[in-house]
């Protein structure tokens, strides 16, 4: 084969990558903040028939009703209860809570989702604020920017997308936003739900979140035992240009004991474990761990 041919270059690029994939053997380059990717992902978020990016409306409603009941049990009026939603996307969790009178602030770094959320909140007259922030680079004045909050929510198991050192850095920064006694709600993926095996699959797509034009989508799944991480690689071969892109995402497994210890180090205490709220199945939701900010 001609070493300068496009096919040869594609095969060499793919062959030169680690197989099975490993957690830190490539850029963590799911382009969440890229405007084009963000716009395609927003379409999936807003599709009520899929769980791929967000959840179906009935599941979200069960989650927000459960959260509202928990917060009302504290005796604090809804209009005096401020919720910070981490990784808020287009605000689908915030809107039903705002309709029940709760104040809401969301942080994310997907620009199109945030733009849509702001416009939708304004259209519906809801008390919601949306801030563009990267969890791995939170500002030192985060508590001032979001104001004191009574609850922090972190849904979808997205906590596991971050390396342990990153999580241990942002957890105390988030906890500092809580009033003493405020509650942190963490939806976490149990250790035994991580797939600890290697696999591959491919499909031909006319369009996906990674590409607007017809493309071959090859996926590799690997378990990195050293990092205790699921690794998911997406190879995208564009039909029109012949361009090959590689995207990698990791999900890091924590034991319940490790989670509790990391939260305790962030000043969050009194852990309580809750079964999945909507009972929608382990493919669609996870248990919730609640902790509260210790009194000074």
Structure write-up:
- The chain is α/β, with parallel strands linked by helices and 296 residues long.
- Helices cover 28% and strands 27% of the residues.
- It has eight helices and eleven strands.
- It has helices at residues 6-15, 35-45, 57-72, 94-99, 111-124, 142-146, 164-175, 256-265, and strands at residues 82-86, 103-108, 128-132, 149-154, 178-187, 199-205, 215-224, 229-238, 244-252, 268-274, 288-293.
- The chain has a seven-stranded mixed beta sheet with strand order 3-2-1-4-5-11-10. Strands 6-7-8-9 form a four-stranded antiparallel beta sheet, covered by helices on one side.
- β1 (82-86), α4 and β2 form a beta-alpha-beta unit.
- The model has no long low-confidence stretch (mean pLDDT 91).
**Rg over C-alpha atoms, rounded to the nearest angstrom:** 20 Å
Low-confidence parts: none
Backbone shape: globular
Strand content: 25-35%
Tell me the structural class: alpha/beta
The helix/strand series, from N terminus to C terminus, equals HHHEHEHEHEHEEEEEHEE
Major beta sheet summary: 7 strands, mixed
Number of strands: 11
């Amino acid at each position: 084969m001609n070493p300068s041919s496009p096919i040869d270059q594609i095969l060499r690029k793919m062959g030169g990558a680690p197989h099975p994939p490993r957690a830190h053997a490539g850029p963590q380059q799911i382009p969440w903040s890229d405007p084009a990717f963000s716009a395609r992902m927003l379409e999936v978020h807003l599709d009520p028939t899929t769980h791929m990016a967000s959840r179906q409306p009935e599941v979200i409603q069960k989650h927000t009703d459960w959260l509202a009941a928990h917060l009302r049990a504290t005796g604090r009026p809804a209009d005096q209860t401020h919720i910070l939603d981490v990784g808020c996307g287009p605000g689908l969790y915030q809107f039903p809570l705002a309709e029940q009178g709760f104040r809401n602030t969301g942080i994310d770094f997907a620009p199109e989702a945030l733009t849509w959320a702001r416009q939708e909140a304004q259209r519906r007259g809801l008390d919601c604020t949306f801030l563009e922030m990267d969890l791995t680079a939170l500002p030192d004045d985060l508590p001032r920017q979001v104001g004191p909050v009574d609850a922090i929510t972190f849904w979808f198991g997205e906590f596991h997308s971050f390396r342990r050192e990153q999580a241990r850095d942002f957890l105390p920064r988030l906890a500092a936003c809580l009033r003493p006694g405020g509650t942190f709600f963490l939806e976490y993926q149990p250790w035994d739900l991580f797939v600890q095996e290697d696999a591959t699959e491919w499909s031909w797509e006319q369009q996906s979140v990674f590409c607007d034009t017809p493309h071959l989508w090859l996926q590799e799944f690997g378990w990195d035992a050293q990092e205790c991480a699921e690794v998911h690689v997406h190879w995208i071969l564009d039909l029109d240009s012949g361009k090959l892109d590689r995207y990698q995402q990791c999900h890091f497994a924590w034991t319940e004991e490790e989670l509790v210890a990391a939260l305790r180090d962030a000043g969050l205490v009194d852990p309580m474990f809750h079964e999945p709220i909507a009972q929608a199945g382990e493919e669609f939701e996870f248990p919730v761990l609640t902790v509260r900010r210790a009194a000074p």
